[in-house]
Amino acid sequence: MTDKQDLRKQCGQLYHEIEEKGWKVVKQGAEAITIITEFYPGEPCILKSRPEKRWRHPILDQKLTRKRCLIEARLLAKCHAVGVNCPLLYFLEPNRGQIFMEYIGGPSVRDYIKEFVSEEEYETSLAPLMKIIGSEVAKMHMNDIVHGDLTTSNMMFRSVETLEPVFIDFGLGSVSESEEDKAVDLYVLERAIASTLPDSAALFHYVLEAYAKTWKQCKPTLRRYDEVRQRGRKRTMVG
Fold first, then answer.
1. What is the distance between the alpha carbons of residues 23 and 153, in angstroms, rounded to a whole number?
2. Beta partners for 98?
3. What φ, ψ does residue 216 adopt, rounded to 5°?
4. Contact 152, 108 (CB under 8 A)
5. Signed CA dihedral, 194, 219, 134, 177: sign only
6. Contact of 214 with 137, CB cutoff 8 Å
7. Active site residue 181
8. Domain segments of the chain: what residues?
9. So which residues are the signal peptide here (predicted)?
10. Residue 122: pLDDT band by 50, 70, 90 thresholds?
11. Catalytic, out of 61, 111, 144, 149
12. Secondary structure element (H or E) that encloses residue 30, with its range
């Protein structure tokens, strides 16, 4: 099946709108389609749309889609309120499962590391960035915001000149006081950095250092993170 056929099958009615308006699909995930469009003429924006899931009952599907859409929009709004760098929310159509938000034009942190940083410069170049990431994640967690998919692909730059990471894609996020949920966020981030960098241990130390400095009451979460990390290592050893 070609990408175009797959898109037509997944998107249903949205596919005709994409074709008609010439929108550019930038990401096609299991839960949502991410599209570059315009919020008004000359102002690019991101449209994140959750297509209908035809295997679910239509009423249940609409309720679940609306709920996830509202949760993600509220998380974006809450992040802005507490000073976390994330896309600005423009407009919401929960009944259609659509969120219009700020377009972030730079590369992802993952792509930046792979394309712009040589192995010899890793620690010198990336330590300041890791500290910013740690501080931003701490701001989320101290306000009970759990990202849910905290990878280097879900952090983008507005430009390579500024190198301010913008956290995107809160589609799996939640508001949670759970130390376990926050610890899993940190573990997912650690594994994401490890998959991007050949020697990640020293750099992730900068993340945790900034995390603890920003959130003074994080010790219970860091203890839980150590437990989650040990469980993850055991699973890897067992296979």
1. 22
2. 49, 93
3. -65, -25
4. yes
5. positive
6. no
7. no
8. 3-102, 109-238
9. none
10. confident
11. 149
12. none
